[in-house]
Amino acid sequence: VSKELEGNFFFYIKFNSVIKAAEDCALQYMNFMNVIFAAQKQNILIDACVLDSDSGLLQQACDITGGLYLKIPQKVALTQYLLWVFLPDSEQRSQLVLPPSAHVDYRAACFCHRNLIEIGYVCSVCLSIFCNFSPICTTCETAFKIQLPQMVKPKKKKLKQAT
Fold first, then answer.
1. Which of 26, 29, 34, 133 could disulfide-pair with 114, CB 3.0 to 4.6 Å?
2. Quick check: is 157 in a domain?
3. pTM
4. Is the distance from CB of 51 to CB of 22 less than 8 angstroms?
5. Among candidates 159, 119, 120, 125, which has minimal Cα distance to 144?
6. pLDDT tens-digit profile of 73-114?
């Protein structure tokens, strides 16, 4: 939110805070991803200031929306990180030397068990992700046609004719 004061001065109020009080919960993965994509569509940056263990979901949120993800190396320096890294807006950040981006874990949560998986099956209709194959999507109930491998008949050997 920005407001114009007397003259050409602006002040900015920023409320894109993410507070992480517990470990990531795969049960909330899909809801959280919907929030991330809605923020991306509205050009809202999501920043994450992490004090304890890393969060794959917050890493994805920051990467997708163009925000910053930073695990604070020293808790005594929290105030400095909040003021110098997270307070500036996106225009001001482009002029700063910020800490490097962390590697983002892009594993998805399966819709059946809500477990994070690296390789899975995707419904071609609703894009639901599953860890095990099923001929019917449990989300949109689409039935998939399964092509079984064709049985190849063995070729008959030609008999050599004696001359």
1. 26
2. no
3. 0.63
4. no
5. 125
6. 888 988 888 888 888 877 888 888 887 777 887 888 888 887
